[in-house]
Design a protein that fits this description.
CATH superfamily of the largest domain: Dihydrodipicolinate Reductase, domain 2
Strand content: 15-25%
Helix content: 25-40%
Distance between the termini: 10 Å
CATH topology of the largest domain: Dihydrodipicolinate Reductase, domain 2
Shape: globular
Number of domains: 2
Structural class: alpha/beta
CATH class of the largest domain: Alpha Beta
Radius of gyration: 20 Å
Number of helices: 8
CATH architecture of the largest domain: 2-Layer Sandwich
Strand order of the largest sheet: 10-11-9-12-15-14-13
Order of helices and strands: EHEEEEEHEEHEHEHEEHEHEEH
Length: 333
């Protein structure tokens, strides 16, 4: 028996990725409701040989729904998530709305699947940068606790949605044609450029994206004392984020030990070919489920061989968003 499924935000970039992954993984469902804003209501979507009509997302959308996958933005999650729970659905929410709520589990199935059963109707999907960064860090942290983590992200346009991906393509064409680039989705030119992540800055000088990584990692690891600092940057890549991660461990650890631990880690693929200087790139990770890891090397600035550098690439729309939510839904079944 399959479940009765609803997707809120089905016409967005992550919503479309939900459909792709549900089909690929043959997720069992008896019925499916496709929900979006009033602008998209009435749109037809072909899925698994059947035509669906997109319905407007309202508080009455969740009658007889078991699982609701949300990717409609934080304000809509706050508005409609509780109504879905009241109707008897379990919400897996891809927005930032509930992530730091102490009553809401924040889950990456490769790390803390046991937290799923603590849900009170809502389970939060972490931020894409958090997921991509810490899936490979977790098996290392379990073997030898990480004391400090320094992260620099190189984030694709997909993190800002479909319109941002289109903007990157259009700006590239405009510039190649000798025209001035049009900026709508982003505050600055993204083609042939990079800039500090466009999330709001806090009084400490860090932006929201950077602080999400700090707070979410601590919550998921169940480790409030881990020291984390982060710099998030947008780069002109369509999809798949990269991250440079520097780790300081409690005990000595070698690059070979790191490779051994990551070679069997769930959700991780090693791409660490020093001989050919070949390491993870966005084009390796795009469309793939796993996080790719390479450039594994000792940080010689940290004494007693307690420092390691790694470089990771992961598909922001897949593992960074839709796939993680669907893995949670599979465990709910």
């Amino acid at each position: 028996m399959g479940c009765k499924l609803a997707i809120a935000g089905v016409t967005g970039a992550v919503g479309q990725e939900f459909l792709k992954i549900l089909q690929e993984r043959d997720f069992p469902f008896d019925s499916l409701k496709m929900l979006a804003s009033s602008r998209s209501a009435g749109k037809k979507i072909e899925f698994k040989g059947k035509e669906y009509t997109v319905e407007e997302l309202t508080k009455k959308s969740f009658n007889r729904v078991n699982i609701a996958l949300f990717s409609a933005g934080a304000s809509r999650s706050k508005e409609f998530g509780p109504a879905a729970v009241e109707a008897g659905a379990v919400v897996v929410d891809n927005s930032s709305a509930f992530r730091m709520d102490p009553n809401v589990p924040l889950v990456i199935p490769e790390i803390n699947p046991q937290a799923i059963k603590e849900h009170k109707g809502i389970i939060a999907n972490p931020n894409c940068s958090t997921i991509i960064g810490i899936v490979p860090v977790w098996p290392l942290h379990k073997a030898n606790p990480v004391k400090r983590m320094v992260v620099s992200t190189y984030q694709a346009a997909s993190g800002a949605g479909h319109s941002a991906m289109v903007e990157l393509q259009e700006q590239t064409q405009e510039i190649l044609d000798g025209k001035k680039p049009t900026c709508k989705a982003f505050p600055y030119q993204i083609a042939f450029n990079c800039f500090s992540h466009n999330a709001a800055l806090g009084p400490n000088g860090y932006n929201q994206e950077e602080m999400k990584m700090v707070h979410e990692t601590r919550k998921i690891f169940g480790c409030a004392e881990i020291a984390i600092t982060c710099t998030c940057i947008r780069i002109p890549v369509l999809r798949a984020h990269c991250e440079s991660i520097n780790l300081e461990f409690t005990e000595a650890i070698t690059p070979d030990q790191v490779r051994d631990l990551l070679s069997t880690a769930p959700g991780v693929s090693l791409l660490d070919d020093r001989e050919h200087n070949r390491f993870p790139m966005p084009i390796d990770a795009s469309g793939k489920d796993n996080i790719f890891v390479g450039r594994i090397r000792q940080d010689e600035s940290i004494p007693e061989n307690r420092g390691i550098n790694i470089w990771v690439a992961g598909d922001q729309l897949r593992k960074g968003a839709a796939l993680n939510a669907i893995q949670i839904a599979e465990k709910l079944l």
